[in-house]
Amino acid sequence: MNVLTDNLSLYGDGLLGTVELTVYASLLALVLGFVMASFRVAPVGSLRVFGTVWVTVLRNTPLTLLFFAVLLGLPRFGVVLPFELFAVLALGCYTSAFICEALRSGINTVPTGQGEAARSLGMTFAQTLSLVVLPQAFRSVIPPVGSTLIALAKNSAIAGSFSVTELLGTYKPLNELGYSVIWSFIWIAVGYLIVTLSISAIFNVLEKRWGVPR
């Protein structure tokens, strides 16, 4: 227990860093995922191709490699940002591909007649998607989106290897101070459990309120 009590501020900073990474990267992933899902079902061929390439490349690229590409590659092109922001970009873009596919699967569950009826009333593609299709698709994608964001929270551990303050990175100073590695990782695991259970609880509430009855 002294591993936690003696280093409460260190664990607190790590937990706060993980929460911030998770929240900011989740917001970016949801926005990009929505945009790419819209592209993938758009009537414009170039948008569909762009969305397909985005999803295919990111889903088949290891996250660690993407971190290297963003944190070490972008500065070579004059893009210099704090490491925390680079980590948010890497996590958000990577997760957006999975959010996109979850949303697209939900869109595909909406009967095509719904979209045809909306278009027959003179609604544009954007209006049909935002006002008719997505509100119905949202109900069926709550569980997979929640699972994807839980995975994002755990993937944030990679950021610690790139000088970003987060929960897993706390084991390094603790190890240098001579604390038990086993207990250090146990309390780190408890921290991740708090984050993931919080996300799960939020999406359980959303599912009970708006999810599709089973």
UniProtKB/TrEMBL annotation:
The chain crosses the membrane at residues 21-42, 49-74, 80-100, 181-206. It comes from the Bacteria. It is found in: Cell membrane. Keywords: Amino-acid transport, Cell membrane, Membrane, Transmembrane, Transmembrane helix, Transport. It holds the Pfam family BPD_transp_1. It is a multi-pass membrane protein. Residues 15-207 form the ABC transmembrane type-1 domain. CDD domains: TM_PBP2. InterPro entries: AA_ABC_transptr_permease_3TM, ArtM/GltK/GlnP/TcyL/YhdX-like, MetI-like, MetI-like_sf. PROSITE patterns: ABC_TM1 (PS50928). SUPFAM superfamilies: MetI-like. NCBIfam families: HEQRo_perm_3TM. Belongs to the binding-protein-dependent transport system permease family. HisMQ subfamily. This is Amino acid ABC transporter permease. It comes from Streptomyces aureoversilis.
